Fold:
Amino acid sequence: MTTLRIASYNLQKCVGLDMRRRPDRALGVIDALGAEIVVLQEADKRLPPRPAALPDEMVAAHGWRVLPFGQPGGSLGWHGNAMLVRGGVEVVDTAHIDLPGLEPRGAILADLKTPIGPLRIVGSHLGLLRRYRLMQLGAISRALRTRGAWPTVLAGDLNEWGATSALDAALPQLKFLEPAAHSFPAPRPIAALDRFALSPELTAVGHGAYRKRPAAMASDHLPVWADIAPRHA
Structure:
């Protein structure tokens, strides 16, 4: 069975738990994931014009392509969300989605041609309050309905400490995977804040959190990964 590995990683602006900004360390963790597609959160610095915490030239030197999402000012993505691809992944289209809430939030969307077929990837970093998380998933659901149907994966930092039943109801096109491992806080994880959701055409052959050094120091979140395949394969 042919699978595609997708990963999600909250970079914490490349500032590790030792309070050092080390984009090289963050990229080392990303490379070690063995993924073809990586969705990032907190990939830009906080203050306007929000320059990239992970420099473009460093990313390119490691063999990754940064997908364009139209945020000005040297940012890597949209509201801190970014997406890297490598290998046999081709970009068909990219878009961003404005999300409601008290905090500035957004989502990114990419339609891709991949070794397992066409694939839509949505990346997001949801709000701290559940009320707004549900509203934000509702906005993503509406955006998906306006586009043609594609096999879809949502990946990101959901900021959700509890069960995913309410999240499933807010985003009925997709089903959230039950977490295989906790991802936060990185040194001693107790919560599965970083998760994936799949459309019915897809299945996860395996998924988990990456714990090898220096992941427990490079960010306050561990990266998570999922090996995805078409359900009929």
